[in-house]
C-alpha cells in the first residue's frame, strides 16, 4: 500500500504526481504482471543467461544493431 504525505495547502495534482512516481518506483505493476502466470525456475534462469549474453556481446561490440 502506497502512502503519500500531502500537506493541506498542497494541490491535488502535485499529490497525484507524487503517487504516480512512487507507484512506478515500487514496480507494483511489474510484480502484478509477473504473478499472473507461473514461470518455471529453469525458464527464468535461461532468460537471465540470454540477457547476460546479449549485454556482454553488446558491450564488447560483437553485436551490431
From TrEMBL:
Domain of life: Bacteria
Keywords associated with the record: Ribonucleoprotein, Ribosomal protein
A cellular component annotation (GO) from this entry: ribosome
InterPro entries listed in its UniProt record: Ribosomal_bS21, Ribosomal_bS21_sf
Pfam families per the UniProt record, alphabetical: Ribosomal_S21
Gene Ontology terms, MF aspect: structural constituent of ribosome
GO biological process, one term: translation
HAMAP family, per the entry: Ribosomal_bS21
Family: Belongs to the bacterial ribosomal protein bS21 family.
NCBIfam families: S21p
Protein name per its UniProtKB record: Small ribosomal subunit protein bS21
Organism: Chitinophaga oryziterrae
Amino acid at each position: 500500500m502506497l502512502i503519500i504525505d500531502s500537506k493541506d495547502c498542497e494541490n491535488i495534482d502535485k499529490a497525484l504526481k507524487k503517487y504516480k512516481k512512487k507507484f512506478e518506483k515500487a514496480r507494483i505493476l511489474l510484480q502484478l504482471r509477473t504473478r499472473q502466470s507461473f514461470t518455471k525456475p529453469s525458464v527464468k534462469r535461461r532468460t537471465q543467461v540470454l540477457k547476460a549474453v546479449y549485454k556482454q556481446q553488446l558491450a564488447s561490440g560483437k553485436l551490431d544493431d
